[in-house]
Amino acid sequence: MTVEIITPGETLYSGEAILVKLPGAEGSFEVMQNHAPIIALLQKGKVKVKDLENKEIYFDINGGVVEMLKNKLVILAE
Question: Can you list the domains of the chain with their CATH numbers?
């Protein structure tokens, strides 16, 4: 799936991933390829991206919104 992590000032990540773990407002959750469409609020925490080489990359966010649609995950983070 394609993943973009965008803040008001920059794009933190843009690329392919096999898994993304997110700090949801109601608890953490994971999104993988072919996940059902979803829009969710995010709280302060760490976003984990596992890329196609199984490398784990972490990003700290202060909250935001995530949308998954047609194998594209977009995170609008603070």
Answer: 2-77 (2.60.15.10)
